[in-house]
């Protein structure tokens, strides 16, 4: 279920009673699932009979409920209540702008009972805090890697829209039964563009162990590296089961010349890929400049996931059928060996082997271009060389056919003039000369044969 633990001391009776309707009957309250701080969270049912989450602005420290109406406890606290209410409505605006498959979706924002409400999706699952402590067997390296990837995608979407969450922690990340991760609670969010912030959001953004030290100092600009640190601390918690050391204590120790009180994950004995743990360590760097500067950069640094965990070879256990088959093969081999030994010792009993007949290809008849058989290739080649020399000694023909005259000049020459053959025939292999009989070549064509047309 959604957030059933870590409730504050605010009594649940301060919430609306079950059955109470909101927005003219569009939402019917079923039960309170979280109360404290600056609001009360309910499970409700909408007009389509769907379960939804309804968050009510109710700062219990300086307001009270009169029937169903919410009012400040004293005239002096009216201004504080209005500031909280204004901030609550800003949270709804952040949620509306931050639409993403890994960020809880807003259905409606409305005012009623002198306060404000946000209706959003109901995620049937648990937060990462309960997952680690109550379902530790479910927290595998593959799941942690899956959570990291989905959260990095959500963060990149937020930062691209100039939204800083500033409250990423195990209790603000939900996971359902299908391992779908959902980021919630934008009460501490702020804009990366205008730099405007409120004292209330600055207070809400601080969470020991998960907040970067910049969030403790309002005079320092808050950048995406703050969310990177918080996600690194959340993954640290999933790996170790322990809350990380406060970033302020780490900063004080390092600036004093002492060692960082938080050990690197990559140096520990954890059942995770070292390269993956190193990315978490970098995200948890004390100095903002040493961290990943964007979620996309961190995501690109993640090592390629293994298809399956590495396994050591286990001793093979042979079944009875396998042993029987092996025995039968060994018996057959023994029989063959025995038969071979018998024929060697007593050649007279050696079985007559079938004569091996060599496989020969049918003799091939060499023919010329016109299909006439050639009985003596060397004699035929000498005749061809003699005819070629005789043809080369004849004068060039002056008249050209009309078809040739229409050809380009260089091609005319090649069509009418046969290249002279040296009195010393070019030495060619027998294979090359025979090939010319069937494929029409007597020498290799060069680029000069084509001149400007090459």
Automatic annotation (TrEMBL):
It holds the Pfam family Pkinase. Keywords: ATP-binding, Kinase, Nucleotide-binding, Serine/threonine-protein kinase, Transferase. Gene3D superfamilies: Transferase(Phosphotransferase) domain 1 (1.10.510.10). The keyword Kinase applies. Residues 412-424 have a biased composition (Low complexity). One of its GO terms (molecular function) is ATP binding. Its EC number is 2.7.11.1. Residues 27-367 form the Protein kinase domain. It catalyses: L-seryl-[protein] + ATP = O-phospho-L-seryl-[protein] + ADP + H(+); L-threonyl-[protein] + ATP = O-phospho-L-threonyl-[protein] + ADP + H(+). It is an enzyme of class 2 (transferase). It comes from the Bacteria. Residues 388-427 are annotated as: Disordered. This is non-specific serine/threonine protein kinase. The lineage of its organism: Bacteria, Pseudomonadati, Pseudomonadota, Alphaproteobacteria, Rhodobacterales.
């Amino acid at each position: 279920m959604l957030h059933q633990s870590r409730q504050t001391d605010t009594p649940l009776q301060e919430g609306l009673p079950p059955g109470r309707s909101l927005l003219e009957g569009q939402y019917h309250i079923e039960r309170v699932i979280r109360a404290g701080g600056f609001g009360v969270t309910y499970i409700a049912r909408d007009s389509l009979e769907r379960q939804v989450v309804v968050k009510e602005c109710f700062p219990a420290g300086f307001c009270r409920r009169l029937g169903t109406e919410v009012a400040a406890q004293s005239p002096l606290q009216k201004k504080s209540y209005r500031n909280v209410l204004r901030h609550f409505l800003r949270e709804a605006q952040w949620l509306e702008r931050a639409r993403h498959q890994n960020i809880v979706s807003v259905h409606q924002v409305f005012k009623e009972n002198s306060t404000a409400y946000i209706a959003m999706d109901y995620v049937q699952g648990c937060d990462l805090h309960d997952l680690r402590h109550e379902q530790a067997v479910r927290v595998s390296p593959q799941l942690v890697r899956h959570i990291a990837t989905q959260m990095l995608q959500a963060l990149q979407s937020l930062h691209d829209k100039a939204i800083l969450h500033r409250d990423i922690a195990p209790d603000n990340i939900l996971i359902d039964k299908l391992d779908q991760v959902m980021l919630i609670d934008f009460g501490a969010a702020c804009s990366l563009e205008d730099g405007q912030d409120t004292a209330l959001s600055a207070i809400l953004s601080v969470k020991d162990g998960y907040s970067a030290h910049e969030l403790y100092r309002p005079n320092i600009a808050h950048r995406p590296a703050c969310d990177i640190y918080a996600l690194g601390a959340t993954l640290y918690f999933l790996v170790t089961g322990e809350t990380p050391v406060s970033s302020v204590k780490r900063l004080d120790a390092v600036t004093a010349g002492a060692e960082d009180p938080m050990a690197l994950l990559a140096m520990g004995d954890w059942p995770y890929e070292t390269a993956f743990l190193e990315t978490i360590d970098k995200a948890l760097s004390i100095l903002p400049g040493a961290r990943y500067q964007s979620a996309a950069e961190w995501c690109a640094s993640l090592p390629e996931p293994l298809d399956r965990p590495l396994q050591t070879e286990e001793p093979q256990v042979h079944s009875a059928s396998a042993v029987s088959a092996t025995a039968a093969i060994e018996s057959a081999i023994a029989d063959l060996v025995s038969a071979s030994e018998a024929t060697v010792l007593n050649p007279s009993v050696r079985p007559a082997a079938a004569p091996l007949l060599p496989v020969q290809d049918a003799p091939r008849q060499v023919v010329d271009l016109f299909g006439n058989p050639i009985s003596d290739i060397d004699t035929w080649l000498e005749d061809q060389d003699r005819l070629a020399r005789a043809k080369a000694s004849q004068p060039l023909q002056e008249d050209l056919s009309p078809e040739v005259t229409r050809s380009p000049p260089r091609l005319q020459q090649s069509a009418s003039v046969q290249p002279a053959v040296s009195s010393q025939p070019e030495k060619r292999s027998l294979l090359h000369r025979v090939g010319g009989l069937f494929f029409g070549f007597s020498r290799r064509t060069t680029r000069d044969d084509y001149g400007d047309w090459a």
